[in-house]
Amino acid sequence: MEIQLKRIYQAQEESDGFRILVDRIYPRGIKKEDLQVDLWDKEIAPSSTLRKSFHTTGDFETFKESYLKELALNKKIPEFLQLIRKEPKITLLTASKDVNHCQLPILKEFIEKNL
Predict the structure, then answer these.
(1) Treating both helix axes as pointing N-terminal to C-terminal, what angle do 103-114 and 60-73 enclose, rounded to 10 degrees?
(2) Which domain, by its residues, includes 96?
(3) pLDDT in tens, the chain (115 residues)
(4) Which residues neighbour 58 within 8 Å (Cβ) at sequence distance 6 or greater?
(5) Calpha distance 85→33 (Å, rounded)
């Protein structure tokens, strides 16, 4: 499976495959009818507490450790992995400005290790 990371504000491309929004909060400035995603499951995104803590401290390593723990304990993860298992390509999406310094690369790593 190929996994790519993008901002939700970037144009949808045919090469995106199955598009998954990984944010708990709805992205600003996008109308609901314009949201081009195949899945938005808020439960796979970092908890609100964890997200707020990361925004306050900026400590990516602590954020990564905590998010991986949340994923490991998340009862929705087996269902999520089963759903995406059949997809040849997925695109993880976020409203965050830096896709390499947020939850997306952490979730990508988690998916790759658990599929």
Answers:
(1) 40
(2) 2-113
(3) 999 999 999 999 999 999 999 999 999 999 988 999 999 989 999 999 999 999 899 999 999 999 999 999 999 999 999 999 999 999 999 999 999 999 999 999 999 999 9
(4) none
(5) 27
- The size of the chain, in residues, is 115
- CA gap 57, 108 in Å, rounded: 23
Cα end-to-end distance, the chain, whole Å: 9
Name the residue type at position 79.
Answer: E
For 75, the token pair is 């009862």
> How many domains does the structure of the chain reveal?
1
Place of tokens 């723990």: 69
